[in-house]
Design brief:
Three copies of one chain form a homotrimer. Chain A is of the alpha/beta class and 347 residues long. Chain A has three domains: 4-89, Udp-n-acetylmuramoylalanyl-d-glutamate--2,6- Diaminopimelate Ligase, Chain: A, domain 1; 98-300, Hexapeptide repeat proteins (UDP N-Acetylglucosamine Acyltransferase, domain 1, 3 Solenoid), CATH 2.160.10; 309-343. Chain A is 17% helix and 29% strand. Chain A is built from five helices and 40 strands. The longest helix of chain A has 22 residues, at 322-343. Chains A and B meet through helix 3, strand 40, helix 4 and helix 5 of A and strand 22, strand 23, strand 38, strand 39 and helix 4 of B. Strand 39 (298-301) of chain A pairs antiparallel with strand 40 (307-308) of chain C.
Chain lengths: 347, 347, 347
């Protein structure tokens, strides 16, 4: 078990240690932390839970520095600081360089120094793996793929041929990159497959969730920028371009050829149709359907909230007749206007 | 082929056999059953299809006992009885104890007696597998995982390190348990990964669908209760707690830190946002978006039903102007009130 | 690099070559094509981009033949023709017959001539693989499965026992066919599993996307017709029947026992509830919820489009009170009618 004093943490990560020092043995949430653990308050509004927390130390935002009632670390961004403290107490397992004897590595594949290649990994012809990268068990890396240095592929990741992954990327189990885009031409009621000859290109520092799918481009490439974070079960269709530092929560679907800007945040299960342009700094609420382009930074939403089923039945019927309802209102307004004239009333 | 008489079935499973006996060779739906097969009527309302069914025997609810026109088994819960009869005719393949020579088992892993470990399975350090459990081909079990007795993992399941699975659980192909929760802190427009140090804990008698994902907790654990049934392509985010006997149909997404009660039933593609509390015995309709907490048992819904596209175009435009529509109604009411006063009308 | 003249292409694929010949080295989109490449115009409305394209040659629809300003191939269906030209320049990698020594093949499995079986493949007892089929790395084929000739299974596909796949099918990585349908009977608040004894039957010429799931039938089979195209992360529940040539975009979910006709096109993230009948030639828009049967060919829709969040807040509140709004309009109409009578106004 790692032990670190608050002063040691401050000297490693920055921030101002106040109200004394103590030895800490780990991190926890406010409500479960013990006196040997450090917790955090993300912003001023979480203050009430902090008061009753048993945590031995807290990371606090500057705005709450005055209220420090125990050893605290004051920083501009308590959540980010807490993330780094967590990493100090729970460092990632060290890379154990070596190639498991069960792995099948094509003779022309290149594996950088310090890599860890797990059991049942298959590396195709010409694949290139950067230094110190880890490939978990049963990963399948197609011919001509390139993976940057210090990447982490959890077990059972598939990269189709020619896929490129940047440095320090984390790919979670079951994700599939480079599968054929959904391209078919209709001919007399039947489908002819359109070969998908583009690639998937993923920038540095991305994280791709479990069972997430990113299709290769039809003619050009599907491009995922630097620092993009995709949660589980996300679908990115062919030819999409996702800007740097954009994040998507689970179950999001992006249809083909849509271009999304930088620093966007897309809530879970949101869906964006194809061939749209979404600008920078756009926030999309969970469950929202985006059917038109968006250029102005801000938050966009389109969900219907739950009702008790009986209430929904009463209301939902009218959803199909809003146009009629609107026409009836217009007619009423016209009639009122006539009545007002006839009776000399001004309202 | 198994042959069982109706009397033998009744003696094994309970229920009242009426109107004679016969030898049966299998189960089928009402509309396809032959005279050698048994079918069932779940409740009184399916009666009409039963009349014309060629099934040699039927499982009937007590309410229909009077209408038995052939050998029948009368039980309180025909569907559950029929499930058990199906299992009699189609018993699960017996466990074939042994470890396939291609499996890679860490020297410190413990495998209980009677287990069947398939080809290309990888068991990490310290993993513990309970007695008589089966691990299908290409399952990857991380270090420190624990799997209860009599569990069934279909091929290609991933358990990240430290995941715990109860006894008699069934995990379908492609599911991923214990992947990192989606936790990132924003710093000057870029994301810092928040280490996810919690685990996934799954109770006894759960079933997890194909390609379903359950993320490990950020600080505390993600907890799936006893008897929980999850269909395919479900996403359970970090820190969720799912109560005993709750069932979720396919494509459901539950965002982080949401707590769901016992015996809930969540329809396909429903989405529940994060940090909510959902009580016991809540039914959520398919496709419903849950954005607020729910405590009162009952059914909740929020979908918009399909329309012919041209009708939708006419109606959907008004969805964006409901507030204006409401304001116009208020104005009309005010004007009518003035008119009524002016003209001495009381309506 | 392949080089083909326009005349050679026309002689192989049909179509009318006009305005001269040239040697071509590949295909590209209008906006990126170079003078050595051929591009295409799908229909008359894309004309403006063609004018400025640097492409050396174009595939044009007959309607634009008059406007050919460079060597062109005139065909009835430019997209389909372009798909075939793409395949000429980018032929699929040839099958490399052979069984990788790491594969585990049951002694009773039958592998047709010319098949390519990748590393870490597991073939169960009695599995039958048609001639010239390819099984990518780490595919798991259950006992009694049948795969037609010339099929292509990308890496990490799971077929549960008894699944049947037609000739020339393409299955993408991570897809799971034949997993148990979601069938459970409620007994005193707990679930009893209903054994799923049907199979999954897939016709010829289908394509199944990455991480897509198709469940086996409960009693009868789940049946996917000929030429069906399913994108990534689609869920097809037990007992569904999908008609020939129907296509579904990513993230679609079809609940149990629903029957869908031929030549339907289902947009991304659409959801169809169970036990419905959907006719032939039905088009369903992306994100649409289908809660009622559909028989008349045409397009159906049910989405709510995004709004700026503040606007949504104002409007969404009224969604829960449409019934009341409707009642208020009815009351206004009654009052107006009384007023009209009293004042002798006819509007």
């Amino acid at each position: 078990m790692t032990t670190l004093t608050l002063t040691e943490i401050a000297s490693q990560l920055g921030g101002l240690a106040v109200r004394g020092d103590l030895a800490l043995q780990g991190v926890a949430a406010l409500d479960t932390a013990t006196p040997e653990q450090i917790s955090f308050v993300a912003s001023a509004k979480h203050d009430s839970r902090a008061k009753t927390s048993r945590a031995g130390a807290l990371v606090l935002p500057s705005a709450l520095a005055e209220q420090a009632d125990r050893p605290c670390l004051i920083t501009d961004n308590p959540l980010a600081t807490f993330a780094r403290i967590t990493a100090l107490f729970h460092p990632e397992a060290a890379v154990q360089p070596g190639i498991h004897p069960s792995a099948v590595i094509d003779a022309t594949a290149q594996i950088g120094p310090g890599c860890e290649i797990g059991p049942f990994v298959h590396l195709g012809a010409g694949a290139v793996i950067g230094a110190n990268s880890r490939l978990g068990a049963a990963c399948v890396i197609g011919t001509g793929c390139e993976i940057g240095a210090n990447a982490l592929l959890h077990p059972r990741v598939t990269l189709y041929p020619q896929t490129r992954i940047g440095a320090r990327c984390i790919l979670h189990s079951g994700c599939v990159l480079g599968s054929d885009g959904f391209g078919n031409a209709l001919e007399n009621g039947r489908w002819t497959k359109i070969p998908q000859i583009g690639r998937v290109i993923v920038g540095d520092d991305c994280e791709i969730g479990a069972n997430t799918c990113i299709d290769r481009g039809a003619l050009a490439d599907t491009v995922i920028g630097r620092g993009v974070k995709l949660d589980n079960l996300v679908h990115i269709a062919h030819n999409c371009q996702i800007g740097d530092d954009t994040a998507m929560a689970a179950c999001v679907g992006i249809a083909g050829s849509t271009k999304i800007g930088q620093r966007c945040q897309i809530g879970g299960a949101a869906m964006i149709i194809g061939h749209l342009e979404i600008g920078d700094d756009i926030l999309i609420s969970a469950g929202t359907f985006i059917g038109k382009p968006l250029s102005k930074p801000g938050t966009y939403t389109s969900v219907m909230l739950q009702q008790a089923h009986a209430d929904w039945v009463k209301n939902a019927a009218h959803l199909r007749h809003l146009h009629t309802m609107h026409e009836r209102i217009k007619m009423l307004e016209k009639q009122i206007s006539v009545l007002n004239t006839e009776t000399g009333t001004s309202s």
